[in-house]
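[09:14] KT: can someone run the structure on this one? pasting the chain below
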Amino acid sequence: MHLPIFTAAFSAVLIASAGLSGAGAQEGSVQNVIVAPAVADRFVDQVEALGTTFANESVTITANVSDKVAEILFEDGQQVEQDQILVLLRRDEQRAELEAAEAVLAERRTAYNRASELERRQYTATAQLEERRAAMREAEANRDGAKARLDDREIRAPFEGVVGLRNISPGTLVTPGSVITTLDDLDPIKLDFTVPAAYLSNIQPGLAIVATTTALPDREFRGTVRSVATQVDRVTRSITARAFIPNEDHALKPGLLMTVRLLKNPRDAIMIPEEALVPSGTQTFVFVIDRDDNKAERREIETGGRRPGAVEVVSGLERGELIVTHGTMQVRDG
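[09:31] RB: done, structure tokens below
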């Protein structure tokens, strides 16, 4: 559910009333003030943190064997499917070995089937059948080994994702561990961030977040906490959480620094403009306008959370009551 971070503008009304008297003005003089209604709105508490993005899955594509590159079948930045062939190494020798191994297997399978039929008719000994079975299994193992060596010459994508920049060219001699390219699954993208351990009870899987980055200043990214680390850092007394953010357009890249706002305790709240507050010591007051006679009542309220330009009222006001937002210094109770 979308939880608005910034409330809509409070509608303002200009009121002129003889009942609003200034502290230093003559009794009964008219004072003009601006008022606005207390409105009901959705509100969430926020905790800010810094985090770093990571690919959902990430791997460095390397070769398993030593050979020369025969063909490159991907472009830089291309979206590829799981098991898609990315690079072919020279494999003529391995293909010939596989064909030879398959021919031997076919011959030994035929010999085994013949021996099995003769054994069924009791024309040959069981021991000879077992020899044929062992020979056939040996040929199957040789065939499988030849196929594996051929497959090593086909470098495939282990999962769906986006390939990075290639580091090879056709004819390049690669060896085990030679970096060919990278592969990243960018949707969704992971966001790891740390928060003080004091917030441990609030950071739970499913908690909504909003993240921003200076690299994309005009966008907000919404996601949810997926998991929380099992240990608190003993030095910083903080804990790491991981959120997942949908990233269909791949705008977010691994390694970005992001500001994270954790959205907890969503609720319906009474909101008023921040300018309406009249602090006095440890207490907070507002001037409430009586709609019948336009008299001002100085009323104590209890405030809750805040967001830019607005304050949550926990108690002391009802939805729709008019309060003075500008001109509070000119107004007194009654």
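[09:33] KT: thanks! The first strand starts at residue 13 and ends at 17.
[09:34] RB: yep, looked fine to me
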